[in-house]
Amino acid sequence: MDNIHESKAFLETTFRPRDWVIQKIESMIEKLLSNIANGSPPVLQTVSNVKRRECHTEYDVQSGTLRRKSNNFKDVSFLKNPRGFAIIIRILDICHELLIHDVTATKRDIYYKDVRLFGNQHTVDAAIDELACLFRVPRACLNVTASAKGLVAGALKIIQKDKTILDCQSLNNQGILIPTDQIDRVETNAEFVLVVEKEATFQYLLSSRIFEKFGPCIIITGKGYPDLATRQLVKILGDLRHSNNLINSFETIPILGFFDNDPYGIEILSVYKFGSTAMSFDNENLATPIIKWLGLHCADWQKYNISKNTLLPLTSADRKKAYQLLQREYFQDEWRNEICRMLYMEKKAEMQSLCENDDILNYLMMKFKCPNSWL
DNA sequence: TAAAGCTGATCTGCTCCTTG
DNA sequence: CAAGGAGCAGATCAGCTTTA
Predict the structure, then answer these.
(1) How many Cβ atoms sit within 10 Å of the Cβ of residue A1?
(2) CA–C1' gap, A134 and C20, in angstroms
(3) Which residues, other chains included, contact A59 with Cβ-Cβ below 8 Å and sequence gap of 6+?
(4) A232: CB within 7 A of chain B nucleic strand
(5) What is the mean pLDDT of residues A306-331?
(6) A245: which of A63, A113, A254, A316 lies 20 to 30 Å off by Cα?
(7) What are phi and psi of A248, to 5 degrees?
(8) Contact at 8 Å (CB) between A251 and A196?
(9) From the Cβ of A65, is strand B under 7 Å away?
(10) CB of A227 lies under 7 Å from some atom of strand B
(11) CA–C1' span, A286 to C7, in Å?
């Protein structure tokens, strides 16, 4: 009972069928029209663009993710804000059209449908996400996607909604693009999942034949800040339980993050772990709280004999970002310690430094063997 | 040929202006 | 006058095209 009560405190999204969303859009327009017929001015009710306002997002101890507290609505008036009004109507129209014909479009496609009205891509992005937040559905329910960005390779079969199967092992050794909103379920016998910050490291790992040396595993990269599809896949993998392994039954597959030891590396890792404030209304489908930070850690370059001259000085932007991260009280102490040491030493370490010395696999092997060093 | 700029997805911070 | 919304700017990642 308490569960129900507590979950009510946060916004939740529900996957809805097409008809439901179409109905929702139509009733929104009908309401607008009847208001006009009654003589009241044309006003649309939507949610506030509170993306970057942390006051509407809160860390939820129970789920270990960032969650949006509630919707606060705003009125967009045709008289006061005609452009904003027109943008919402146009987006509603486009989404309605997409849903009726059951085709999907990327946010970029939508932007190009009316460049003059939208002005820039960001306007479309914001309007789409506001709409998803208003209807309390994942973005995919509007038949809007973003073009694929993340890569995956390894012991994973992705069964898509149209029943086609993507075998991430067999295709090629470059990794395959993570499909957006097409995943029905996955099959894997992987012993761990390695989430890598940068594509360069990802490709390096593949070319060093990591699969031959480490056994069945999955490598994923979001190429910097991950898109929704990448975060969804990591989340799906994080929810899996080993069923075919007697020893590990009912245990999750370890999800390990391999990130730079710099403030941006930690921030990107935190997007995987806690979710972002921008998409906090859908974080229950996007955040993976069980992810652990495998490396790089400050202590590592002494422990593993990494040459000290590969360390880079902190820039002023790094320092600023570091202080901002320390403000987030939900970061665990281990992360804060790393940030503090970074600031104290005024140095950062990038994964590139390991690649140059060609001992990245040795490093990973040693890290795998001591789970208590994962943060 | 190397550097700069664009595309494209994501994130946040800063500043101006409206609103109660 | 303070709080909050809107819009812009700039950061991460990376690849491709254009320019000096």
Answers:
(1) 5
(2) 49
(3) A65, A66, A67, A274, A329, A330
(4) no
(5) 71
(6) A63
(7) -95, 10
(8) no
(9) no
(10) yes
(11) 27
Ramachandran bin of A86, using left for φ above 0, alpha for ψ from -120 to 50, beta for the remaining angles = alpha
**Residues A206-224, mean pLDDT to the nearest whole number:** 84
Question: Which residue segments constitute the domains of chain A, with CATH numbers given?
Answer: 2-145 (1.10.10.10), 151-373 (3.40.1360.10)
Contact A189, A212 (CB under 8 A): no
| pLDDT grade for A88, boundaries at 50, 70 and 90 | confident
State residue A6's pLDDT score. 37
pLDDT at A4: 32
Rg of chain A over all Cα atoms, to the nearest angstrom: 23
pLDDT higher than threshold 80 for residue A10: no
Of all protein residues, which has its CA closest to the C1' atom of B11?
A: A225
Q: What is residue A173's DSSP assignment? A: S
Single-letter code of the amino acid located at A299: A
Residue of A151, A190, A146, A186 lying closest to A171 (CA atoms): A151
CA distance A40 to A134: 22
Q: Are A231 and A288 spatial neighbours (Cβ–Cβ below 8 Å)?
A: yes
Q: How many CB atoms lie within 10 A of CB A45?
A: 12
What does the alpha-carbon distance between residue A178 and residue A298 come to, in Å, rounded to a whole number?
31
- The C-alpha angle with vertex A227 and arms to A202 and A147, in degrees rounded to 5, equals 100
Give the number of other CB atoms < 10 A from CB of residue A164: 11
Question: Between the CA of A278 and the C1' of B13, what is the distance in angstroms?
Answer: 14
Burial of A370 (0-12, 13-18, 19+ CB in 10 A): exposed
